[in-house]
Amino acid sequence: MYHHFKKLMYTVNVGTPDPRFGNMLLEQFGGANGELAAAMQYSIQGLNCDDPERKDLLMDIGTEELSHLEVVGTLARMHLKPTKTKREEGEVDPMIAIAGGGGVNLYNSMADPWTADYLKISGELDVDLRSNIAAEARAKIVYERLINFCDDPGSIDALQFLMTREITHMKAFTAALESLGKDRFSIGQIAPTPGLVDEYFKDSTGEGDYGETEARGPWNEGNSWKVRRISELKEGVENIEEPVGSAGSRKPKVRESATPPKRKTA
After folding, report:
1. Residue 224 — φ and ψ, nearest 5°?
2. Which domains does the chain have, with CATH numbers?
């Protein structure tokens, strides 16, 4: 069950309210990478989790995100307060000033309403943990950008706290994922098709007008990688490049397709 204490997790102090910045803060209140989305995602994952230890983790962090929502809401409300009484400030965003009375609501900085479509819940623990790591990384970047747009020291302090907790959660979710003892690419129960899983499809070819090239890196060379140049596929023949060794040599290799070429008719 939930119990509310009448204290913020982090005390918020705003020296100079800025309604425009308050509007930006709504992104972390009712936006895709915001605190409500995180709280709902982790809590619902926890309700679905059959692993008692990792369920405890999900419920802990999901509940903390509700506390973060309260901090963000309080901070945004302090910055938006002038829109309630000052016409010039209210004109920054009439929806907040008139429809919302200068307060917060469950929409983002562009007044799009919050939606459950933001949530990533698969019912597969390791998949959910990966989603959560990515969610925390996105939230961290949003807080960093908000800090860069802010001049108020008290607001920056609160945002720094929230941004730091995103990294804390990333560390916890990563540790929980690693503790499962699964191979990094072992997802679900059905194994991928051998051979095909190591083929890299080179679908973006040629050179661009702004320096784009056909790049090589550990994502498509070395180890067991084979490159398939889709743009060069011909009827009945596939062009395959050998795996690149330490010397970086490549020799084109031609293999026949499993599908025989079509017979031409007169």
Report:
1. -110, 10
2. 19-179 (1.20.1260.10), 196-256 (no CATH)
